Amino acid sequence: MLVLHPFIANLYLSAPSQDASGFRDWALDEVRHLIPFDAALWGKGSAVSRTFHTVTLTGLDTTYPRELEKTASFNPMMPALQESPGAAVDMADLIDDREFHASKIYKKCFRKHGVERILSCSHVDSRSGLFSLVSLYRFDSDARFTDEEKAAWSPMTYHLSKAATHAFFLHLTRPAPEAPAVSAAVCDRHGMFHEVEPRFLDLLDQHFPDREYGTLPFELPRKPDTFTIGELAVETTELTDLVLVRIRNLSPIDQLTRRERQVVENVCQGLSHKEIGRLLGLAPTTVSSHLYRAYDKLGVSSRSALARLVRGRPSADSSDAED
User: Fold this and answer.
1) Would you give the DSSP letter of residue 117?
2) How far apart are CA 86 and CA 76, in angstroms?
3) pTM for the whole structure
4) Neighbours of 278 (CB within 10 A)
5) Cβ count near 97 (within 10 Å)
6) Which of 3, 47, 211, 223 lies most in the core, judged by the most C-beta atoms within 10 Å?
7) E strands along 71-163, which residues?
C-alpha cells in the first residue's frame, strides 16, 4: 500500500519555500514519485459551467484543456466524476479497451494526444461553486493503473487542492518583515509527528526540555484553534486526518487587542494617524487612543521605540521624544 503521510506533509511544509506560481508543477512532480505518469492535467474552475479558470499541464499540448471541455457531453468519465465527487475514476473501469478505442472521445481527443490510460478525481466546494480536477495519463495501453494507485489517488488529489490553496494565500498574505517567525509540523490527532521543521523542534526543546520525543508535549484541540501555552503561541489547522501545527515565541504585541495590533502594525509601516484611520475606518483621534494604550502596555513612548520593539531589535532609550 502506498504510504501517503510523508507526501501529504511535504505538500504543506514546502508551501512557504515554493514559488506560488509554480507550486502545482512542483506538486505534480512529487506525485510522479508515487504514481508514475506520462502527462497530467490539473484544472480549477466553475462547477456550474464545468469550464477551467486555471490549468496546469504536464506533457500535453496547450490546446488539450479546451478540447477536453468540448467532450463533456459524450465523455464517459464526466457522469462518474459528478456522481461521486472525491472518488478516483479510471476510464478502464467504465468501458473496456475495445469500446474505448472505438469511442467518440478517444477519436476526438485522446488519440490525438497519445492518451491510453486515464485516472481522474474531482473535488467540489459547494460553498464557493469551484471544482478542481486532477487527471493522470499514460501513453502505454499496457500500463494500467493499479488498485493501489487508484486507492491513493482520492486522498492525494484532496491534499493537492488544499495545499495549492494554502500556498496561494500563504504567499498572498506573506507576513511583514517584522512579524514573528513561525515554524510548522504536521501531526496526527494524537500529536505524533509525521513531518516537522527543525526550527519547530528547536522551539520545543527550548520550552519543553523534558518532553517525550516524537510527539507534541501538549494536547491538540478538537477543532482548529489559536492559543498560548507557556511562552508559545500555537495555531492548529485541520488537514483531513492530519493536523498542521504552527508555533512561535510570544511577541510583545501578543498582549495587545486586535485593533491595537492593527494600529501598531500600520504605525511600524510608517503610516500617519490619518492614513491609518482611512485604512481601518477610524477617526484619527481613535487611532491615537489605540496607539497610546499600546504604548502604555509595551512600555514605550515613541514610534521609533515601538518599531524597534516589534522588530525584536535592541531598543534605544524608550523615553525617546515622540517622533
Assistant:
1) E
2) 17
3) 0.64
4) 13
5) 14
6) 47
7) 89-90, 117-125, 130-138
